[in-house]
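Structure ticket #2291
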Amino acid sequence: MSSLPTDVRLVFWLWVLQTCAWTGGLGLMPWVYGLTTGILVAGIVVGLLFSRFIFAHVFNRTLPSSLSPYLTFIQIIHPLSIIFRFSTAWMRCLPDLYILGEVRCGTTSLCAMVVDEMDVRGPFTPFVHPLAGKESFYLVGHYWGCVHPFFYRMCFPTVIERWLYTRFYGRKMIIYDGCAQYLNSPWVAGMIKNITPNAVVVACIREPVAQNESWWKFEGNSQVWANSLGLPSKPAPFRINYPPRSMGDAIRLSQSIEIKKLFDKAEGIKGPFLPSWAVPTPNGQLSGLTQMTWYARNIERYVELFGKEKVVISPVERLSSNPSGIIQRIKRALMLSRIILPTNTKISDSRDSKESNPIIPKRLNMTSKKSVFLSAEDRKQVEILHREQNKDLAELFNKTFQETHPSSEVPSWLFEYY
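Resolution: structure written out below.
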């Protein structure tokens, strides 16, 4: 039983103690023993079902016939917490702030800064991970494809916790979700608007080729880890031409007619469950490589729904050079949205914050700096594609964000179009 996850392991040892008490004639009430047994069995079953879903839809693999991968993976998930949170969703809150991604664009570092500087609360993460508490993965369907608006609450604190926080600190608890896959997933913007119409959203961006290379390396590492679990190399049956064997193949896959049709189809997803081909991305994380860097299109979804005042853009290079300015813009957007700020937060009058105690950004969740091989032909095609996407983004800055985002905060890789 040492391979069981933390919460189930605790219940298991409680069950062992109760079994000893029962057999030792210590007068344990039968219903208590039965309840503990039921909770233990439920945790194991949910853990196995959750593992099956993640193997197929996140690692994009056929299901293993051996029990070993399940017993290994079940050690890093919280099945009893999942059960408890779904059961108590009715008494939980919803987020005020979304840090949307894109992936590999500084979302983890920005989330850490927001937590440190604004004292916000993050979501429940179903995995045991150093970055737990940053992203829920809910609206991209990690919980068996469920994206029902009501159960989204399961990821966040209870109304009682929020009330106690307000009584104790004298200010509202601000809650955020920092899922880096929300920006690129076509259905998420509409769902967020439906669930939390007054929310503030932050889009993180990065020079497109660097983003593609970083994501390719990150996913490569995750697949190496999946291999170490003993998962079969054969892809899940609902994936198309997956996985790509090289970054060049991934670029071509993301630009293929089949994948473009899936992204167009995904625009119309309403829930309450996502189809298998859409979890995650659609068609797997590497199928959307160039869709991820179509920043203008992805950001415009949110501008159309929330308005430019509630959308903040965070270029990763500005996060490094002027983190205080980005934090101040987030605070300003929260104020404009009438979300009560903690009393110890101050809104700077200047666009570029020059505080006496500047924020020092944390560089988290980094990949190696080793370059990714791209043939000369592939690199040329990528640069042509991204040139067009960058023109769209520069136009978005010019037309939409000129007032809220000063030119000093426009990323340098857009200057030739801006």
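Closing remark: Residues 30-57 form the longest helix (28 residues).
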